[in-house]
Each structure stands twice: as C-alpha cells, then as structure tokens.
C-alpha cells in the first residue's frame, strides 16, 4: 500500500522532469551570443597607434579622391559619356566598400576591447557582399563599354545610351543584393553559443561561420561556391572581353587605338587589383588568417584609394576637367580669403 502511494506521488514529477529536459537542452544549444570580439590587425598598442594614423589618412584620401572624381564627372559636360558615368558609379561603390568597416577599424585601434554587436556583425556581412558583388558586375559593365567603344565605334552611342548605362548600374546593384542575401541566408540561422572571437578587423563571413556551434562544413562549401561562382564568372567575362579588345587594338595602329591602349591598361590594372584578393580569399579558402587579413585590407582600403589614382594619372580628359574645376572654385587668393574670414 505504501509503495503504491509513493509511486503515485512521485511518478508525475518524473514525467515532468523528463519532458522539460529536452526543452532546456534545446534552449542552451540555440542560445545566441550578443556580441563578437574583433581581434583586429595587431594586439600591439604601439602598432595600433601607428595604424590609427595611417588608416585615418588613407580613409580621408579615399573620400577625397573618389568624391573628386564624382564631382568632376558630374560638373563637366565633356565627361557626360557612358565611360565616365560608369567610372563615377565605380567611385561611389569604392567609397561604400571603404566605409562599411574602415571607420570602425580606425575607432577600434584606440580601444583595447574591440567588440561588435551580433546585428552589426550581420550588417557588415551584408554590406561587404553587397558592395563587392556590385563592383564585380560594374567592372564587367565597364569592360563591355570599352568593347563597344573599340570594336563597334560607329554604333557606340546607340548601344551605350543613357538608358542602357542606368540599366547596367541597376543590374550591378541587383546582382550584389541577390548575392549578399544568399550569403546572409547561410549565416543568420546558425547557432552561436560560445566562441565569439573573430580574427579580423571586421566580420568576414568565412571567419564568422567557423564560430557556430554546429558542423559548418556544408555551409562553408556553399559560401565558397556562391562567392566563387560570382568572382570567377565575372573574372572570366572580363578576361574574354579584354582579350577581344586587345586583339582588336593590336590589329589597328591609329592615334585613337593608342588612347584605347592607355584606357585599357587602367581598366585591367583595376580589375587585377580588385579580383586578385577576392578570388584568393573565397575561392582558395585554405590560406592562413594572417594572409587573409592583408588581402582584406588590400581590397577594402588600398583598391579604393588606388582606383582614382589609376584612372586620373593616365587620363588627360579627367586631368583637364579637374584643372578646370580647380580654376572655377579655387581661384588665386580665394582660399586665403576663406581662411581669413573663418579665423576673423
């Protein structure tokens, strides 16, 4: 009798505990970290102070150089052509590429504990793939523009109309959006329940997925396949386009072809500088983290700062437009007058 009463009293409790245990385990396994720790480029305080100064100057140069190109193209009617329209959009994307992580990296170099919230980390992943994906497609559009200009010069203005240029720019942003949405879909539902140190200065997708509390082998393959497909397909299209253009230029020996060679050199240099690091990081995912950091700095900082230099140093039209812009807004003595009025 006593045994049956004891069984009757305690059996519900045992059933309740059995049901609640999986629920507790489920909550633990799917709990999310609230922030990530960015290890940055270096742990040395002296080196971080040096990096703060250097990257602050670089970022300022990126803003000034690229906005100067945008201002020059929009203000000079002689540059209202398809090539310069696409160039101005490239400068805008370069500013975006440099701005999604560089300001935070500069600010983090002044603090010891570098953290970023979970949502801000996802935002960085979203924007880096949006901007880089858009830039890849825009570079293909610029190659197509050069192909039409050199191989079909009589039909250039008909084919590369204003409407076509706008559509090409919109397509580049649309492809970038589709690419980054698919990349983010691989990450947003991953369980992050413990490790939260990202060995970089921003939330790079391959590094973040490695912190998930689950097997990410398949996810990593999908990420590499997605980024690899966009990078390699864009790069192959560019190689084919520029090969056809170079063959055409080689078979013609005129003054206009000499100018085309100069333009092509600038375009090919920009393509190499941009696609090299991207392909190395995402298509060859077995490189060391230190190499990845250098390459990430290269395509987020050095490429945006080099593009204005490459396109202006060898382009007489842009340099002439900049000189005209300077004479219009910075007349002799005008700067000193502005400074004097500001100090008075």
Automatic annotation (TrEMBL):
GO cellular component, one term: plasma membrane
Domain G-protein coupled receptors family 1 profile positions: 65-311
The name this protein goes by in its record: Olfactory receptor
InterPro entries: GPCR_Rhodpsn, GPCR_Rhodpsn_7TM, Olfact_rcpt, Olfactory_Receptors
Lineage of producing organism: Eukaryota, Metazoa, Chordata, Craniata, Vertebrata
Organism domain of life: Eukaryota
Keywords assigned: Cell membrane, Disulfide bond, G-protein coupled receptor, Membrane, Olfaction, Receptor, Sensory transduction, Transducer, Transmembrane, Transmembrane helix
Alphabetized Pfam families for the sequence: 7tm_4
Family statement drawn from the similarity comment of this UniProt entry: Belongs to the G-protein coupled receptor 1 family.
Transmembrane annotation, as ranges: 50-71, 83-102, 122-144, 164-186, 229-249, 261-284, 296-313
Record membrane topology: Multi-pass membrane protein
Gene: LOC112629248
UniProt-annotated location(s): Cell membrane; Membrane
Keyword Transmembrane: yes
Matching PANTHER family: OLFACTORY RECEPTOR
GO MF annotations, alphabetized: G protein-coupled receptor activity; olfactory receptor activity
Keyword Membrane: yes
